[in-house]
């Protein structure tokens, strides 16, 4: 490439080279993309969708609680008995959770930097707009879930180990852990609050992931909006009924 009559070796930055995506090589370009604002949004969307896929599976498994202690413990034991599945899922979830959280905070900070002065008054967009309470509080709901997940894991996954027998086999009594957790009204209230937050986060996250991935179309957007809303409500509500059921019937 010639600049002011001089030959510049390929890959050298010149004042004319766009800084966000230097034309050096693929590795530098992908690194620049990953840390760019659009790259951050795309990674947020992909990791969000992947994390979101875990929740219907987790909810379906948890709904076995309605079938009683034995069925639920059998299911929990079946899961951990599948070779390498649990470590792979756990490492994957942890990596996705960390990347998603870091990118969410970076995205929030870069949005704030792009708009340094706060508006005099907060204007709500019209009824058809996607600017809802859920979207403007995405970072708050996300941070709340960031606090919920470790507490949840300490209570359930790393909670007390009780043994029980299912089909002649000694297994962990996970059902008892769930029942003991929801025997405390404080825990029930905490979970109910967090499940509303989960629903809201999914509701907006779903819609915004589609738009970040460029899957936004005037004709299909209303359907995407409704699908996101339905996903948030179904998953949020599904998890919401569990602490109530266990507290009452457990
Ligand atoms: C009322 C709602 C919920 C109940 C009763 C529940 C129950 C449980 C139980 C019993 C376990 C331990 C399973 C075992 O060790 O065998 C677990 C693990 C887990 N839960 Fe939940 N859960 C609920 C909601 C959620 C939500 C909303 C999230 C995420 C936002 C979540 C994320 C996880 C994760 C990441 C694990 C660890 C999975 C693994 O290590 O393989 N849970 N849950």
Structure description:
The longest helix is centred in the middle third of the chain and has 30 residues, at 85-114. It contains nine helices and four strands. The model is unreliable at 1-18 and 119-128 (pLDDT under 50). The protein has 250 residues and is mainly alpha-helical. The chain is 66% helix and 5% strand. Bound molecules: protoporphyrin IX containing FE. Residues 58, 62, 76, 86, 89-90, 93, 145, 149, 152-153, 156-157, 174, 178, 191, 198, 239, 242-243 line the site of protoporphyrin IX containing FE.
- SSE string: EEHHHHHHEEHHH
What is the total domain count?
1
Total DSSP helices: 9
The N- and C-terminal alpha carbons lie at a distance of 73 Å
Topology:
Elements: E1 2-3, E2 6-7, H1 26-35, H2 37-62, H3 69-81, H4 85-114, H5 133-136, H6 138-155, E3 163-166, E4 169-172, H7 174-181, H8 185-212, H9 221-249
Antiparallel strand pairs: 1-2, 3-4
Helix pairs in contact: 1-2, 2-4, 2-8, 2-9, 4-6, 6-8, 8-9
């Amino acid at each position: 490439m010639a600049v002011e009559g001089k030959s510049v070796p390929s890959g050298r930055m010149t004042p004319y080279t766009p800084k966000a995506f230097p034309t050096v090589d693929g590795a530098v370009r992908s690194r620049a993309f990953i840390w760019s604002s659009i790259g951050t949004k795309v990674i947020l969307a992909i990791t969000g969708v992947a994390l979101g896929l875990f929740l219907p599976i987790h909810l379906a498994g948890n709904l076995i609680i309605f079938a009683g202690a034995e069925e639920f413990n059998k299911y929990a034991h079946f899961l951990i008995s599948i070779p390498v599945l649990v470590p792979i899922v756990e490492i994957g979830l942890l990596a996705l959770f960390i990347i998603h959280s870091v990118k969410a905070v970076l995205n929030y900070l870069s949005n704030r930097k792009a708009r340094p002065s706060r508006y005099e008054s907060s204007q709500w967009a019209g009824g058809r707009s996607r600017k809802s309470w859920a979207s403007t509080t995405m970072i708050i709901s996300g941070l709340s879930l960031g606090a919920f997940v470790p507490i949840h894991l300490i209570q359930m996954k790393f909670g007390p180990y009780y043994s029980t027998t299912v089909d002649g086999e000694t297994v962990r009594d996970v059902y008892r852990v769930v029942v003991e957790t929801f025997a405390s009204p404080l825990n029930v209230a905490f979970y109910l609050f967090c499940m509303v937050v989960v629903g809201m986060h999914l509701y907006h996250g779903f819609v915004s992931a589609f738009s970040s991935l460029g899957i936004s179309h005037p004709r299909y957007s209303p359907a995407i909006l409704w699908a996101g809303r339905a996903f948030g409500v179904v998953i949020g509500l599904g998890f919401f009924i569990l602490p109530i059921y266990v507290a009452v019937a457990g």
